[in-house]
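On clarity, I found the account of how folds are encoded harder to follow than it need be. Since the whole study asks how a given chain folds, the encoding of that fold should be made plain. The format is easy to grasp once an entry is in front of the reader. For illustration, here is how one protein appears when written out as sequence plus structure tokens.
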Amino acid sequence: MMKVALISPKGNMFGKNNRLVSFLENSKYMESFKTLWTGPNLGLLTIAASFPDDWECEYIDENRIPINFESDYDIVFISAMTQQAQRAYEIAETYRSKGILTVMGGIHATVMPEEASQHIDVVLVGEGEALWPKFIKDLQNNNLHKIYTDANKGSYDLKNSPMPRYDLLRNYEYLLITIQTTRGCPHDCSFCAASKVFGASYRRKSNEQILKEINEISKLYPGTLILFADDNAFVNRREAKELLKNMIGMNLRWIAQTDISIASDKELLELMVRAGCQWIVIGFESVSKSSLHNLDAANWKLGQINKYKESIQIIQEYGIGVYGTFIVGLDNDDRDIFRATSNFILDNKLYGANITVPTPLPGTQLREKLLNENRVLEMDWSYYTLWDIVISPKKMTLIELEDGLIDLYYRINTNVSAEKRLIYLRQLTKNRRKYEAAISKEGEGGYR
């Protein structure tokens, strides 16, 4: 029998800028974002589902509880995003000094395996389910390698993926629980490493698998908000609609990441409402056409910008809130971008918004470009939070970008703006009731 720890290292929710952190931590407008960032580490829960039955597991989220380094384990598994990497290495080195085997996976280890291997005993590069059989065989034969790489990136069949060990979360009171139903992204955005980690082909679990996971979460944590943690949850419309039909009547509350094209599918929107969708996250990225140019390989988002206003209105008229994400300080942005972005958010009455700055994350085209231009100012991964400025902007100074970001958040958080948003959301709640009435005479639901 093995005793193992599954550790998600501590990170920074709003970065390290004290002015921005103090404001955002007390902002009611950012409550939806705080909810998004409170979920568990799904990668660790998924790999735990592959462990032998006699292994004893402990899940530790350092954002919620401190790590007790006096606890004795046989193996420590760590999964980290880039901003968590430094802390991940510190944790690993503490356990290694005790002779405990350390294993690291996740997005940072996948794009920076050689770096990670300097601090970690074993690095898993790619999807854990695909790498696990080789790892466990070598562990049993006492023949472990330093780095395990998935030779067929993006080919793992998610229909073989085990149900995550949601039972390991019993000691936590998460505001939401995550489900991943798909992997792969064809857009290849310059600021994102998703296609490098999961490949460009779009892969999906079966509806039967997804419903089993939903039922397990509902059984263990009744009423908990569910996040479909996919880059784009509704690419396969036929299967998505069949799933939603089966979710109707399950008394669920859920949110998802998707794209603006769902506005053109009225059947999908109605099914989403009836199945319990509360709000959706859409990456608008920018309100500037020049800044959207070449942001993704096919300029898909640039082609959608003229439809933004109408599409947002259509989606929200169904009672589904639109939460937008934006990047300010892109190379074609000058100081006008801050007012243009705040006007867009307020004029379109977005349910919520998250505005960040360009961050050259490892594995991205953006990092390669900015390194070549000698514009990367900070190599300490703990500053790669998306709110801390680690590059030299092109059309403004670093201080102008920092001040503009903070001022933008102030503009969308005024008392007047908050009151207008509240009135609008109350109207949206009324709108969704006519769809919910099809499954509930009381028409229960709305924003919660």
User: Anything to note?
Assistant: The longest strand covers residues 277-285. The CA atoms of residues 142 and 159 lie 30 Å apart.
